[in-house]
Amino acid sequence: MEHSWVNSAETTPRASGHRPAPVEPSEEGSDLHLELAGSGSVRARLMNALREAIRSGRLAPDTRLPPYRTLAVDLGIARNTVADAYAELVEEGWLTARQGSGTKVARRATPLQPDQARGPTRRTHRRVTHDLMPSSPDAAAFPRTAWTASARRALAAAPNEAFGVADPRGRPELRHALVEYLARARGVRTDAERIVVCSGFAHGLRLLCQVLHGSVAVESYGLDFHRSILEGAGLETVPLSVDAHGARVEELATTRAGAVLLTPAHQFPTGGPLHAQRRIAVIDWARATGGLLLEDDYDGEFRYDREPVGAVQGLDPDRVVYFGSTSKSLSPALRLGWMALPGWMVDRVIEAKGPREMWSGVVDQLTLADFLASGAYDRHLRRMRRIYRRRRDQLTATLAERAPHIEVTGIAAGLHAVLELPEGTEQAALRAARRQGLSLDGLSLYRHPRSATAPRDGLVIGYGTPPEHAFARALDALCLALPGPTRDDEAPATARGRK
Amino acid sequence: MEHSWVNSAETTPRASGHRPAPVEPSEEGSDLHLELAGSGSVRARLMNALREAIRSGRLAPDTRLPPYRTLAVDLGIARNTVADAYAELVEEGWLTARQGSGTKVARRATPLQPDQARGPTRRTHRRVTHDLMPSSPDAAAFPRTAWTASARRALAAAPNEAFGVADPRGRPELRHALVEYLARARGVRTDAERIVVCSGFAHGLRLLCQVLHGSVAVESYGLDFHRSILEGAGLETVPLSVDAHGARVEELATTRAGAVLLTPAHQFPTGGPLHAQRRIAVIDWARATGGLLLEDDYDGEFRYDREPVGAVQGLDPDRVVYFGSTSKSLSPALRLGWMALPGWMVDRVIEAKGPREMWSGVVDQLTLADFLASGAYDRHLRRMRRIYRRRRDQLTATLAERAPHIEVTGIAAGLHAVLELPEGTEQAALRAARRQGLSLDGLSLYRHPRSATAPRDGLVIGYGTPPEHAFARALDALCLALPGPTRDDEAPATARGRK
């Protein structure tokens, strides 16, 4: 093969005279099999190959690299390319170069530790066949087509500034759509200036924690995750007893709580709505004491036997922080929620949120705005209400037939019910459930550790989570896990109340 | 108009005999003009209308409502509908009902306070004609079409479980795509188990704050927003001097810092890359002291005159937390970022993040995974590099011509440059800039208040933010705001260095 002088100078720099010397692999570089795979420039591929060789340990620390001219010959590429790659890797700290001693692999560039390369130990879960946790709606029912259509419209219609640094309250399109929807569907009285978009209830609560101080009253049954957010922020939680009419808000008078966190539309997890007198009483308390109601309206849209109960917030928008989200209505993976705040709190919450941080992505916010305004949200909710009501009916019918001694409560609304168990049987029922491959929680998990009232035995059954086709089998497994009837239960099942 | 008996009983309950009595408006209800507008059931519309009347103050507290039969006649709707609506509104606390005294507007249901209904006072900004803040890429260049295509593909391909309760580290599709991309483009050594998706750098830093303690070294020039996150979490910040080679990491030895936050690829805001020896020195420091480098790779993809400098993280993945995001490459409004963590930190960061919280929406995560894997991200970056390089060149050419006495630094990479100003002229230049309708920052805004080195006068010019068509005019305005040459500057401009 003939080379022009220029070419041979580029590819075989050690050649002397007019004919190029035969190309011999350099000694130092002979075991260095670099594959310039992938895309990008030759230099980028060479750099990746060198980094990879160092990472993997094939090129050990202090190893002397072939002179760049040699490597250029070996690889059939331009000298400058190799020289540049070496210089770049020196700058990045992979290689060291010293006058006279050539280019070496830097001592710092050790390979990934093998034991750590496996990554952290992850919690291993027992295999779950039937998921009856109350945390999620049916993931298979996410309205992908309608959401995609809204995203397409929203992205096409958005002003350019939507992709710039944004208002930390969230996109105005979404806040306006929420004001209209929340007034219409939930009786919330607010305006777009008082809405703050967040990543869901927990994010909103974290923000509020930075505005609150002292102690916060909570329901004696509730998510320990929410209690831990409050307590993690240095707030004390004080339990209020819960009965069939929701939290006993009259107990607030005996606390020094400056705020109370309630689930008025559908007490979580026991299931009843807050009684009308208590709705008024909690507002009276807030007005008299300068207190604040944190209203967690986590599944207020789902009520099966009549219209949903409106939000307490409407009674006094200046004393209530209303929290809503798409976590139950669409998907907890969307991470979209909102707060309707008293006007005097907005700036403080924005400051807690971070002046540059919207937190929720603009595409999802714009998409939800379109989804609400186009009526797709209402259509989706109607569809899901039908699905969940059918499941609720299937749950109660199955239990009436196969476990008539078990009382089911909290079934008028939401995506979960409570099976009341005989005293002292909850733990055994949970063990039996695990043996059946069921993932579900007992009531005791939700009980505030300082609750004054006696613990109730029960199972919390999320009937939203399983996919349609798997629900009947999940119920079969559940029936097998329930305790049998005691002597007291032998009265006819039809005489027992089902509320 | 004839009514059947059944109909008349429904609509005119007070009628006696076979012929309906003439319908007369009830006295109490005569001034209550309820419009059952909107969509939804008659009951829902009636409830909304009543809530609205109470909200607006048209129905004052203690006002007695017409008996439900009367209102049913007035509105020509079924009695039961009105009775149900009343009962529902009593339950929501809008109305009170007492045997014998009828249904009244509850005292608590006061209208929105007019002064508060205006919403909180928002900071008013001076009108900005030219935005040269360094915080945002060109919002008009967001790749809407390609993003929509990725979203459509990603939503169609996602498994159902993607819409359920999720891994707080983020979607595996995205974490795998990031591992491949970060290794290829940024020299990051990690695996999908060590990636944690977050809402951007600030969110990641907030999470790290819960794992760190004591003091954190920072660059003496940097975002005060980041310092305030650290200090807000109870961490002390210690400034390291910054020169043309980045932070003087040798000063770490004189601090008690357990971690150091750096911008190695492109010091923010002064603009130089961290020198190779300092890259190695900071890793040596971390190894010797058990310290941690927090590597903020905020715009590492944008380098114009040669290949980007790889991440320091690659030198020792067990001593570096690598932070990246789409805030400069795509849009700060996406709220998508990531951390590549040392393996031993992953569980702690997840705990700080909240075990149920992904924070970033699943749709954006899946979309970005597709965007990366399909090559759309690389195409977008190449396009933006061309655009920003052209703007950078336009900036330097304009200044060379019209303000040759002003030195421009930090121009090899990123979306901003620094104009070095004569001592003591920064504030005057900022005032002049405001008069020109320019929004930009002076260097002093970024200076750590406890920095030991003398303050520099300068302007930070973000050339990414303006839309294409407005950039030339923004530069014109900038030139008008710059201080004129001093006696020292009168040497020929060509003799002055431009690095």
Overview in brief:
The structure is a homodimer of 499-residue chains. Helix content of chain A is 35%, strand content 13%.
Radius of gyration of chain A: 32 Å
Number of domains of chain A: 3
**Helical percentage of chain A:** 25-40%
Strand composition percent of chain A: 5-15%
At the fourth level of CATH, the homologous superfamily of the largest domain in chain A is Type I PLP-dependent aspartate aminotransferase-like (Major domain)
Uncertain regions of chain A: pLDDT < 50 for 5+ in a row?
A: 1-31, 110-126, 491-499
**What is the C-level CATH assignment of the largest domain in chain A?**
Alpha Beta
How would you name the oligomeric state of the polypeptide chains in this document?
homodimer
* Overall strand count of chain A: 17
The termini of chain A sit apart by 93 Å
Largest interface: A-B, 107 and 108 residues
Would you tell me which CATH topology of the largest domain in chain A applies?
A: Aspartate Aminotransferase, domain 2
- Judged by helices, strands and strand pairing, the structural class of chain A is alpha/beta
Write out the strand line-up for the largest beta sheet of chain A, numbering strands in chain order.
4-12-11-10-9-5-6
Annotation field: number of helices of chain A: 15
**Envelope shape of chain A:** globular
Largest sheet of chain A: 7 strands, mixed
Task: Give the secondary structure arrangement, pairings included.
The structure is a homodimer of 499-residue chains.
Chain A lengths: L4 H7 L30 H14 L12 H8 L3 H14 L2 E4 L3 E4 L8 H4 L12 E2 L12 H14 L14 H15 L8 E4 L2 H9 L5 E5 L4 H9 L3 E5 L1 E2 L2 E2 L11 E4 L13 H14 L2 E5 L23 E6 L11 E4 L5 H8 L8 H12 L2 H27 L4 E3 L6 E5 L5 H10 L2 E2 L1 E2 L15 E5 L8 H11 L18
Parallel strand pairs in A: 3-15, 5-6, 5-9, 9-10, 10-11
Antiparallel strand pairs in A: 1-2, 4-12, 7-8, 11-12, 13-14, 14-17, 16-17
Helix pairs in contact in A: 2-4, 3-4, 6-12, 7-12, 13-15, 14-15
